[in-house]
Design a protein that fits this description.
- With 602 residues, this protein is mainly alpha-helical.
- Helices cover 74% and strands 0% of the residues.
- The chain contains 22 helices and no strands.
- The longest helix has 47 residues, at 156-202.
- It is a multi-pass membrane protein.
- Its main location: mitochondrion.
- The chain crosses the membrane at residues 301-320, 465-486.
- It comes from Camelina sativa (False flax).
- This is Protein DGS1, mitochondrial.
């Protein structure tokens, strides 16, 4: 196998306009320079450090979506097996390449989504972005330009909106080119692995060099796409600074498939070369994406952070003036008052209502036989009235009253006698039955009052728990609010990996995105636009990897992961029929519980 170029021969040297974006690039460059200082490339110590570094990077960029290889293909964990050492190392480098490309695609897609959302906004929203969401330096520059143009021209606002549109479109154009190139690279690599999987298992000695040569050719095609991007850069671009030097990958020697097999040393050198090309690609993209990425959160919200910092400074000065450091006891008094107010609120609206419910739940049933008016007291009053009526009737009529006579019948006799006595009230009050009739009516009134009180007491005792619950309503509402906040935090409803309604919506939208790209891929194939179809297929793999990553945890919770995983793998097979893929997407959103909307589950 021919010797390969030195490690530092084709390293690009980007412009130092963005220090943060150049950190990954120069870290790799310094590492290669340190490696070249050693007299031999077979240093055991250096090899261990290199492997440890690559393993660390691999963990950070762990791929979720499985490679399109047979199930019996040795994975990178089988590196200790003598019979599968070469294939296991190939599997490891393939995972790193896929993970790196998918990670860069994700960064590009996030920036693209941001710029597209801003470009679709109103003119006022674009002007606000140009002035207030690009940092303090841009705020001063754009404010000065806007004021000067307002004084000299009438179309200052229109000029600002046009500048904003150019700013966004320039970045979107470059990001779209980068995404298209990476998606094509990903699609070609995925298709090659799908086609060569069986050969890699059956005849690895012949297939592995050929596969490495194909991957090296894919890197060359990617290099051509990026050089095309450099050639198309417009002179009036709004992107600050200059682009890095065009990317140049190291090349493998041509493979003679019918000749002698590669030695272990040659195979190791080829794998190391792919690693180095991947590092060059990541370094190059870190610079290119960094120049066109969306502004960082600190830059977007610098006005809020500045106002918050000023407000915090003023508050700190005010707090210092009222602290004990300045000889004031205001803070201690405020803390004491706040503590008492909090304890009072907790006692009045939480503790006491809960204790009241507890006491009522136990005391109501324990003292249910006691009340304001008891049945025995009412019965005594009723018996006394019955005897009074019976004696009055017997003395008035001088006849024995039957035992089955009711109180109402005897009361009629009393009322008739009472009416006659009222003809001569004064005489009958002293010598007649008028006073006795009045006392009987008072006894009847007492009985009626006691009966009404007994019924009212029964009503109150039946609703004692309801009154206690009504007194505890503030504590109940407070508990509901706390439980809602706790539920939202536990379910992580704002993420696609969560278990709440918003997370389910995000996952279902990913399925919709996959379905659209499947249909778009089929449309491009029918129109003969193979290049566009290749790009869409790469984006399809990217969408599948995103769904694969976010649905794994909820699918495992519902014991559906094995079936969901198999369906996602079927959607990524290049030779699978489009009609079958659309059937699978419908099954994903209608059958699996982890992807169903909340209302359907209920």
């Amino acid at each position: 196998m021919d010797s390969q170029p030195p490690a530092n021969e084709s390293t690009p040297s980007p412009s130092p306009s963005n220090v943060v974006d150049l950190i990954p690039f120069y870290s790799n460059y310094i590492w290669n320079r340190l490696a070249s200082l050693y007299p031999t490339s077979n240093s055991i110590f250096l090899g261990k450090i290199s492997n440890l570094y690559r393993q660390t990077v691999s963990r950070k960029r762990h791929i979720s979506f499985p490679l399109p290889l047979p199930s019996d293909f040795p994975s990178s964990s089988a590196i200790n097996s003598n019979t599968s050492a070469d294939t296991a190392r190939i599997h490891g480098v393939l995972e790193e390449i896929m993970a790196g490309v998918l990670s860069n695609l994700h960064d590009i897609q996030k920036s693209l989504d941001f710029w597209q959302s801003r470009a679709e906004g109103s003119n006022a929203r674009k002007a606000y972005f140009m002035i207030f969401e690009r940092g303090p330096v841009a705020f001063l520059n754009e404010s000065t330009k806007f004021v000067s143009k307002s004084l000299s021209e009438e179309s200052a606002m229109q000029h600002l909106c046009q500048s904003s549109s150019s700013h966004m479109l320039d970045r979107m154009r470059v990001l779209l080119e980068l995404r298209s190139a990476l998606a094509s690279f990903l699609a070609q690599l995925y298709v090659e692995l799908d086609q060569r999987g069986e050969d890699l298992v059956k005849n690895p000695e012949k297939s592995l060099p050929s596969l490495l040569a194909v991957i090296n050719g894919l890197f060359s095609n990617l290099e051509g796409s990026f050089s095309h991007l450099h050639a198309e850069r417009e002179s009036d671009s709004t992107v600050d600074g200059s682009y890095p030097m065009p990317l140049v990958f190291d090349q493998l020697p041509e493979v003679n498939e019918e000749g002698s097999q590669w030695t272990d040393c040659e195979l190791t050198d080829a794998i190391n070369l792919l690693h180095k090309n991947l590092e060059k690609l990541n370094s190059y993209l870190s610079v290119m994406v960094g120049k066109h990425r969306k502004p960082r959160r600190m830059t977007l919200y610098w006005v809020r952070y500045t106002c918050g910092a000023v407000g915090l400074s003023v508050f700190s000065i005010w707090l210092l003036r009222h602290s004990s450091l300045m000889g004031s006891s205001d803070i201690e008094n405020w803390v004491h008052d706040a503590k008492e107010a909090t304890m009072s609120f907790f006692s009045d609206h939480v503790e006491q209502p809960l204790l009241s419910i507890r006491d009522e739940l136990f005391d109501t049933f324990r003292k249910r036989h006691k009340g304001v008016m008891e049945t025995e007291e009412v019965q005594l009053t009723q018996d006394s009235l019955h005897r009074m009526l019976k004696n009055f009737c017997e003395q008035s009529t001088r006849e024995k009253v039957p035992d089955n006579a009711t109180d109402q019948q005897m009361l009629e006799v009393v009322m008739n006698r009472y009416e006659k006595e009222l003809v001569h009230p004064i005489h009958n009050l002293l010598s007649g039955e008028l006073a006795r009739g009045l006392l009987i009516q008072v006894q009847k009134l007492k009985l009626d009052i006691e009966t009404a009180m007994l019924e009212l007491d029964q009503i109150l005792r039946a609703n004692e728990i309801n009154f206690a619950i009504l007194a505890a309503l503030p504590a109940f509402f407070l508990s509901i609010v706390m439980l809602t906040v706790l539920r939202t935090w536990l379910k992580q409803d704002s993420r696609a990996q969560g278990r709440g309604r918003i997370a389910r919506i995000h996952r279902r939208l990913l399925v919709v995105e996959i379905e659209k790209r499947i249909m778009q891929y089929q449309s491009y194939i029918e129109q003969g636009r193979d290049k566009d179809a290749e790009t869409v297929f790469g984006l399809l793999i990217y969408s599948l990897e995103r769904l694969y990553r976010v649905v794994e945890k909820p699918a495992r919770a519902t014991d559906e992961w094995d079936l969901v995983k198999q369906d996602l793998i079927e959607l990524g097979r290049p030779q699978q029929q489009t009609s079958y893929k659309l059937t699978v997407t419908q099954r994903l959103v209608t059958v699996y519980d982890c992807l169903l909307p909340t209302l359907t589950r209920q």
